[in-house]
Write a structure and sequence with these properties.
Number of strands: 10
Bound molecules: NADP nicotinamide-adenine-dinucleotide phosphate
CATH architecture: 3-Layer(aba) Sandwich
Structural class: alpha/beta
Helix content: 40-55%
CATH superfamily: NAD(P)-binding Rossmann-like Domain
Oligomer: single chain
CATH class: Alpha Beta
Radius of gyration: 21 Å
CATH topology: Rossmann fold
Largest sheet: 7 strands, parallel
Number of domains: 1
Order of helices and strands: HEHEHHEHEHEHHHEEHHEHEEHHH
Length: 341
């Protein structure tokens, strides 16, 4: 009788420990670093996966986070290696799968790492009896790359990007996110895994890694007067990195969170954004040569699903102010750069 009671107490204690144990894939990335920062502040114990835990240049910033010394562990794992995530995921109650190829010049080769990599992570999840929920970072590009919608109707989570259109236009990043998310839903349905996906628009905000990722480099280019990347993006949604991290934790913690969640603060055309930013930061050489995107690119997003869970998004001004400040603090941007117009 006594033995049975002790066993129950042991099990309860083990469960209480596991309840706050989560895995974050791609831990050294732009978004994952911020997510880990928030998870540690919320009291979680985090197992982060990186391709090379010994690379100080890539992981050094993670060890400086509050709580990291006591509650962060980094393990090696690669999306392209079968079973690579088993050790990191076993015993965790939650998995935040953020790792995915994000390249300056997307190419067809990234499809395999994105799709097979996600399945690889989910196969490790399937082996873990403690698993409660998986939160996968998808993208709004898995929603909006289609040309058959009514621009007067905001796109919501029921919309999926067209695989055919992505292939025809060689939108490799959008295709990689669409195929990876579709494959994840299929796998989780078949294997009874509780999956929730977060679909951020363009993520803006301070970078914890000192080396800027692809999107943060694009933003730096915008502040330095480049036009190429953002003219191609045209009309786009923007969301603060802190809101994206908070959204991941919100959909993980809220019992009734289900399905996909679009995560966006503000949608704006590039020439309107450039005009706001050049007035706000007159010392930065932001270009005034952007042109209005073609009509067919007009769209809006409906984010009421995430807002209904209590999410409130930071404003466009707040996200760009925080970005500019951090780029200057990190020495990527000179506060004295003269305006070019
Ligand atoms: P990032 O800093 O480049 O992060 C990508 C992460 O994926 C890196 O940690 C990278 O690891 C990891 N990764 C790539 N290939 C891998 C592989 N073969 N094996 C293991 N890890 C691999 O970019 P991010 O912006 O934070 O992106 C994080 C997630 O958010 C991605 O899923 C991305 O699609 C999504 N997202 C980003 C945005 C945005 O605007 N930034 C918007 C919507 C969605 P290494 O550090 O070893 O390279």
């Amino acid at each position: 009788m006594m033995e049975g009671k002790m066993k129950k107490i042991d099990e309860e204690e083990e469960h209480a420990t596991k309840a706050k144990l989560v895995c974050v894939t791609g831990a050294a990335g732009y978004l994952a670093s911020w997510l880990i920062k928030r998870l540690l502040l919320c009291g979680y114990t985090v197992i982060g996966t990186v391709r090379d835990p010994g690379d100080e240049r890539k992981v050094g910033h993670l060890w400086k986070l509050e709580g990291a010394e006591e509650r962060l562990k980094l393990l090696k794992a690669d999306l392209t290696e079968e079973g690579s995530f088993d050790d990191a995921i076993m015993g965790c109650e939650g998995v935040f799968h953020t790792a995915s190829p994000v390249l300056p010049t997307p190419n067809e080769g990234m499809l395999k790492a994105a799709v097979e990599g996600s399945l690889n992570v989910l196969r490790s999840c399937k082996k873990n009896p403690w698993l409660r929920r998986v939160v996968l970072t998808s993208s709004s590009s898995a929603v909006r790359a289609r040309d058959d919608f009514d621009p007067k109707m905001p796109l919501d989570e029921s919309s999926w990007s067209s695989v055919q259109l992505c292939q025809n236009l060689q939108l490799w990043y959008a295709l990689s996110k669409t195929l990876a998310e579709r494959a994840a839903w299929e796998f989780c349905k078949q294997n009874n895994i509780h999956l929730v996906t977060v679909l951020p628009t363009f993520v803006i905000g301070p970078s914890l890694p000192p080396h800027l990722c692809s999107t943060a480099t694009d933003v730096l280019g915008l502040f330095k007067g480049e036009t190429e990347k953002f003219q191609v993006h045209g009309r786009m949604g923007y969301v603060h990195i802190d809101d994206v991290a908070a959204s991941h934790i919100l959909v993980y913690e809220q019992e009734d969170a289900q399905g996909r969640y679009l995560c966006n603060s503000t949608i704006i055309d590039i020439q309107d954004l450039a005009s706001i930013l050049s007035k706000r930061y007159p010392n930065l050489p932001i270009s005034n040569r952007f042109t209005k995107p073609e009509d067919r690119q007009y769209y809006e997003f409906n984010t009421s699903k995430l807002r209904s869970l209590g999410m409130k998004f930071k404003s466009l001004e707040e996200m760009f102010d925080d970005t500019v400040t951090s780029l200057m603090e990190q020495g990527h941007l000179s506060p004295l750069a003269p305006p070019s117009h």
